[in-house]
Design goal:
Keywords: Membrane, Transmembrane, Transmembrane helix. It comes from Capnocytophaga granulosa. This is Transmembrane protein. With 242 residues, the chain is an alpha+beta fold. It has a domain of 137 residues. It is built from eight helices and six strands; from the N terminus they run ααααααββββαββα. Strands 1-2-3 form a three-stranded antiparallel sheet. Strands 4-5-6 form a three-stranded antiparallel sheet.
């Protein structure tokens, strides 16, 4: 067996192990709500407006994933073209051209498995969020759904990816890795914790805020200031009702 064969066998074996670890992590760190989500089966058709939103959300996710795949393919193709037709190096020094071509080709092949793992991660999270939204849309009261639409209108770029929703007296936070379920009655405080970059460049930073929600424990989530202001108002209204 040649050294090249051994190298690629070891390399792809490592890629397989990394994929297995990522898959086990995603499956093994689920909280109570996410485990309940696994056994969710749609019970009935959603009202037209909710069904329309869900279909648009699914199309949005497919478009985003399609763009990501397209970028992966284009970048890989450009690298391969660069390997095949690097005329400057070929004319100046054939040996240098050959070495560079081999290095670029190896770089492309080496990154492909890990790009695939990254894509699987993104697909897993997007699919879980879609399923959670469908389950919550099915359970929402008309008032909850009205609130859901108000949240979506806060930021046009997050129309299909709101950072939180409310349903039946519970707050659901959509973080990058997990979906957190918090009974609103248990929330004692909500505040903003400044990021390090805000402390260093207070006048230049205009990104999201790190919001701290104190309930039975502390939960952190990043969101736009407008979302934070809406959330504080919403929680205040719920507290008045109770």
């Amino acid at each position: 067996m040649s050294q090249s064969t051994i190298f690629w066998f070891v390399f792809f074996s490592i890629g397989g192990v990394v994929f297995y670890i990522v898959k086990r992590y995603l499956e093994g760190t689920k909280n109570t709500f996410e485990k309940r989500l696994d056994s969710y089966m749609p019970k009935s058709a959603l009202p037209l407006e909710r069904e329309t939103y869900l279909e648009k959300r699914k199309r949005f996710v497919r478009c985003i994933l399609g763009v990501i795949i397209g970028v992966f393919i284009v970048v890989s193709f450009l690298f391969v073209v660069l390997c095949i037709d690097f005329n400057v190096f070929q004319q100046e020094n054939t040996e240098r051209y050959h070495i560079l071509s081999v290095l670029l080709l190896y770089a492309v092949i080496s990154f492909l498995p890990y790009l695939g793992i990254l894509f699987y991660w993104l697909y897993f999270m997007a699919n879980k969020t879609t399923c959670a939204q469908q389950m919550l849309l099915e359970q929402m009261s008309d008032e909850d759904f009205q609130c859901f639409n108000e949240i979506r209108r806060i930021n046009i770029f997050q129309n299909y990816t709101p950072p939180f929703v409310v349903c039946k007296g519970k707050l659901y936070l959509f973080k990058f890795l997990h979906i957190i379920e918090i009974p609103i009655a248990t929330i004692r405080n909500i505040s903003i914790r400044p990021l390090l970059i805000e402390k260093l460049y207070p006048r230049k930073y205009n990104g999201g805020d790190r919001v701290v929600i104190t309930h039975t424990k502390k939960t952190y989530i990043y969101m736009n200031t407008n979302f934070y202001l809406y959330l504080t108002t919403l929680l205040y209204k719920y507290q008045l009702k109770t």
